Amino acid sequence: MIFNVLFGLSILVSATLRGEGATAAYDPTDVFLINCGATSDTNDTSGRTWTTEYGKLVRSNLDNLSFAANASYQDVEASQVPFTEARIFRSEFTYKFQVSPGWKFLRLYFYPTRYGSDFSSNSFFFSVTVDGLTLLKNFNADLTVRTLKPESKYLVKEFIVTAYKTLRLTFTPSPDSLAFVNGVEIVSIPDGFYTKGGFDDKITNVGSSIDFVECSDDDFLLGEDSGIIPVVPGGKINYTEKTPAYVAPDDVYKTSRTMGNVINRRLNQNFSMTWLFTVDAGFLYLVRLHFCETLAEVHGPGQRVFTIFIRNQIAKLEMDVVEMSGGSRIPMYLDFSVYVGSESGLRPDLRLDLHPYTENAPKYYDAILNGVEILKLINDDGIVGPNPKLVMSGGESHVTGHKRVVTITLIAVGSATGLVSIIVLLILLVQRQIKRKKYRQNNSVAMFKVLLKHYTYAEVKKITKSFSHMIGKGGFGTVYGGNLCNGRKVAVNVLKDSTGNGEDFINEVASMSQTSHINIVSLLGFCYGGSKRAIVYEFLENGSLDQFISRKKPLTLDVTTLYGIALGVARGLEYLHYGCKSRIVHFDIKPQNILLDGNLCPKVSDFGLAKLCEKRESIVSLIDTRGTIGYIAPEVFSRMYGGISYKSDVYSYGMLVIEMLGARSKEIVETADSNATSAYFPDWIYNDLENGQQTWILGDEVTMEENEIAKKMILVSLWCIQPCPMERPPMNRVVEMLEGSLDSLEIPPKPSMHISRGLVTDQSSSLPLFSHGEEEAGGNTETFDSINI
């Protein structure tokens, strides 16, 4: 399960010491360490070099917007880079970082103290955004620092954001206030690092209808005397392809916390290891748990098995680290999603429990945990939570005294209720097998309602102002522009000919909602009521690609930008074909379904809609809802070319790239009954290649480098449009070809087929929606049973 949202990293903790000593197996493409306010480059205690802002980030003539200042008081704890200087902002100020496309790890460093003689950052309230996404709102660093546990004098806020070419980091002071920052760190992270799922390539939703009977009270909350930290002398952590070294450092996996009580193992049945993490209410969280068995005595499956509870609900019934990872000293991690509501206040606790699972009589009645990561996911309002509230000393005494009374009461009745709780828990575990089918059904529906906003049809009409602004139309429905109640612009696709009941619709859109990639349009919500079906998407300000390559709307793009768009689309399709839990085939790749954001970053839209609309038998109807003439693969017209598969998307992508480079300089033929292009380009392209000419780029000022880029795009697209699906490269190979050198590409054989302007097919035979077969290429076979459309 993969989410179609940005991640805001609010908590990163481990059950033990967080280390920095693991050898990184990932070489980040972007690394920025900015010591804000500093006048010279400086090394920190770990040897990393922090640079100044002056030059590209801050110009010297902008003192009216911001100024640099030194900390007038330096606490011993914060006496290191980057906390000795700060940049203070008088008004809105934006840092612009030139970055490569992809996910970025963003750290903001704050040391709230007095700067100079006149500016106390303790009273500063301000907001921080990245490319329009609000990370902090009316934020006060001093309030946050004073409520940290364990106590600290400085603060590091951590986020995961996505960027295309430019990352814009904006600080905006609240009215009658200032803003400040001590340091900015930006580091690239691997694609899919937090979106593909854990060791098992999935993110398990925690939100079933099964109740959890607590088997521990407040005395068993994790503290200095709760559980033990095993000592593992020497030894090497055996990182794997599924858990590479950059997932977590050695210190996380070499240290752990267990329940102890090895001698009297059954004592552990009476309690759980429990952690409480204070989080913001109203958000979905990704909880990543790290495990690694390092003790010599735990070396086989079935020896230590335990149950994972998150927010008092079963997240994983039988957790066996050795069995799942494959052996001792092999690290692994699991991902869970959980929604935290406001029923317990604005800052509730997210509770994590581990309890021995004894049904199969394991050798040790114990549990183990090496590390925890908790990531807040964006919702309609961003990822902003409230400023923490300070508790005065009198209030603290009252709370402490109240807790002591509650604790004594629990101890007094614990002996009577503990046994009952354990018996009830065991009954629930036995009934788990009986309820498994129902659990899965409830789980999918509950998960989806948590992930996306459910709108009524009346709300959709209000969002779109009674469908007054149509911004697009396709085979699956009509797209309207609109605004949410918070002012955010959205696109609403009102589906036509939808099939199935509400639960079928939910399950299919849930599958679509589990996508998260920089080149995939994000789903924000859905509507189903009676026969009405609609999907709410993010709005992309630059619209669709067709307006940039259409002769009717000659908006010019240079070759380098076109190449970036083509590569982004390829990466998006590669993700749909290979990065999702089940393969998603688009079936309608065309310029109108490629949307561009403010940085001209391409995003594939209208994916996965084929199953949501009525299945039709005739080829004309099939094309109307599952493809556009001029981009449809030949196997859609005739089975003589092979079965319909994900290679159909490869063909459409090739035609898309060819049009990007040639539609403005060659005659386009349009059918009389369709707005879609039906021209077949390769004839004139092969002629140009044979004659050593290159007429597919319009203009006399195209450089030699741009000509080579264009030629590479043309060669890759010609491979993609081979009539036989087996001869087309898969999308992961397409990405490699685009990123590789021109010299490594050969001219593919010229296709012998030609798609005419008219549509000539055998309409008496019905075509399958997709093929369940095998495709043979180079002696290997690939099965298409996992196609999800």
TrEMBL record:
Which residue windows are transmembrane per the record? 405-430
Keywords, sorted A to Z = ATP-binding, Glycoprotein, Kinase, Membrane, Nucleotide-binding, Serine/threonine-protein kinase, Signal, Transferase, Transmembrane, Transmembrane helix
Signal peptide interval: 1-15
Subcellular localization, as worded in the UniProt entry: Membrane
| Domain of life assignment | Eukaryota
Bias-annotated ranges (Polar residues)? 780-789
One Pfam match, by short name?
Malectin_like
| Region of interest (Disordered), ranges | 769-789
GO molecular function list: ATP binding; protein serine/threonine kinase activity
State the GO CC annotations.
membrane
- Give the membrane topology: Single-pass type I membrane protein
Protein kinase domain spans which residues?
465-742
Q: What is this protein called?
A: Protein kinase domain-containing protein
